[in-house]
Write a structure and sequence with these properties.
Largest sheet: 6 strands, antiparallel
Shape: globular
Number of domains: 2
Structural class: alpha+beta
Length: about 220
Amino acid sequence: MKRPFYQTFKLTVIGMALYAGVTGLRGQSSFSMQIIADNDFAVFGGTATSVNDLIYQNDAGWPDQLNNLSTITFDLQPGDTTFYLLGMGGGGQENISGTVNGVDITTISVSMSSDISPYLTGYDLGAVAAGTFDANLSDVQTALPNLTWGSPTINNTDYVITQSPTGQGFHFDDSTAELFEFDAVDVGVTSTPEPATCWLLAGAGAVIIASRGRRSSAPYA
């Protein structure tokens, strides 16, 4: 006899649930930024123990930084769960502020590194002051295991900070560069699983559906 309707319906529901589970794990990896720094900055993605990719390299002086970011949307790469915001000082009141995905970076849990500038190849205060110094991913990766971490100081009086969307930010020492680390989930960005994980889940779902189909294929009286 033909398989009863409820058996077909049950398999359909299982398939839809598995599909929703796999696609749900993909999360919301897209985000926007409004960052302003005195003087330069870059944004990296990674995990709590690694820096994996360069997301954005600023190449503008601080008055133009917000406008440059106003229409750009970014994506966190598969497997990344952490943001690293690199603030680079060119002398004077060093600071960084703004929002990631609309969230004020001073309102979430953030760790600040020790000075990373000695690891940045060709670190030049003039280029940093102009907002045009490019930080290499490999240099940041080399530095990460050698850095110490602490809580950043929130500031709302440095002039550049007062021009930011939030009016508050993080201050750091003159002519240094620091990494500011925070979890992607704290700004509403969910990590995307590695492609292999998605395929594994999809394969497991297919096996479950197939096995249920075989058990339901016996003739009915």
